[in-house]
Amino acid sequence: MKERILKYMAYIDQLLADDAGKNEEDYEKIMEEHKLQLTFFMHERLVHLLVTLTFALLAFATFFALVFAFQPGLVALFIALLVLLVPYIMHYYLLENGVQKMYRQYDEMYKRACEREQNRAEK
């Protein structure tokens, strides 16, 4: 998923950089596809938020269980949960920032489509 979201954001950045010859209809098509991709990434973000929260809660519960009853098995479980939690947090961070960037990209496309429409109406 990391590679996919990074490639897609780079693709949209490239489309925005190559602005020549695009009219409002082009931007409307791109915006529709962008909204669809955005919903996919938002769903992925929600799923990873739930997974990350679950692992964090399990890690805290294990830590509190260790405080009250120290057992080697709980130590191993706590370490395993922390080892898994770090990559989940990093991936969720990418998804959250990626979705925020995609919102900004959409806003830029909308602005350009409106400018093209306004320029066409003035002619």
Map the helices and strands:
Layout (H helix, E strand, L loop, with lengths): L1 H16 L6 H45 L3 H51 L1
- Unreliable runs: none
| Rg | 22 Å
Number of helices: 3
Give helix and strand order, one letter per element, not per position. Answer: HHH
Oligomer: single chain
Can you give a write-up of this model?
It is built from 3 helices and no strands. The chain is an all-alpha fold and 123 residues long. The longest helix has 51 residues, at 72-122.
Quick description:
The protein is built from 3 helices and no strands. By secondary structure, the chain is an all-alpha fold.
Protein traits:
123 residues; mainly alpha; 3 helices; 91% helix
